Amino acid sequence: MNTAIIYTSKHGTTLKVAQTIQSQINENASIVNLDDNSAIDLKQFEAIIIGSSVHAGAIPQNMQRFLSENQTTLLTHKLGLFMCGMQPDKQQEFFEQNFSTELRSHSSSNGLLGGEFLFHKMNFIERFLVKRIAKVKESVSAIKTDQIELFCQQWNTIS
Questions:
Q1: What values do phi and psi take at 137, rounded to 5?
Q2: Which end of the chain has the least Cβ crowding within 10 Å, N or C?
Q3: What single string gives the DSSP state of each residue in 75-97?
Q4: Is 50 part of a structural domain of the chain?
Q5: How many domains does the chain have?
Q6: CB-side exposure of 79: number of CA atoms within 13 Å?
Q7: Which of 43, 20, 48, 13 is nearest to 32 (CA)?
Q8: Cα separation of 44 and 145, whole Å?
């Protein structure tokens, strides 16, 4: 099955997760950065996995726009949805706020796959806010490899 893993990533964590998913699914998968390629021909793919970072409860505007403009087409494909973020107690709420009920219901794999604070990739304001709000003073990784494996297992069992 020809699959697209379409993602947005501010500091690279969502790309890292997308690459891990690509290596674990039983399909020919292409990774597509929405930030570099906003005109994606979805008809060339049989299956689509959407991944996004979340900051302050929202996914990036270009991903919001992409989902809104392509929802009808996405609902005709095998679909997976995942989100990367660093507020575990809020991730489910953010997932439901940012992915429509229709997309979530249609998706065969949904994942809250953790995230990272990468201080060396943040600007001064981002570092200040993370230190102040999250009380984190250095880079930290909380990618949930077990949840990535579960996401891929669910994906691989649905044909």
A1: -115, -5
A2: C
A3: TTSEEEEEEE-S-TTTHHHHHHH
A4: yes
A5: 1
A6: 20
A7: 48
A8: 30
Tell me the two tokens of residue 156: 């691989």
- Asked if 113 and 86 count as a contact pair (C-beta separation under 8 A), the reply is no
The Cα 39–Cα 34 span in angstroms is 8
Per-residue pLDDT reduced to its tens digit, 44-68: 999 999 999 998 889 999 999 999 9
| 128: in domain | no
Measured from the Cβ of residue 92, the count of other Cβ atoms closer than 10 Å reads: 12
Q: Which of 113, 95, 112 is nearest to 104 (CA)?
A: 95
Q: What is the pLDDT of residues 97-119, one digit of tens each?
A: 999 999 999 999 999 999 999 89
3-state secondary structure of 133: helix
The whole domain housing 84 covers: 2-116+142-157
Which CATH number does the domain housing residue 95 bear? 3.40.50.360
10 Å Cβ neighbour count for 72? 8
CA distances from 119 to 9, 26, 114, 122, 140 (A): 15, 34, 16, 5, 8
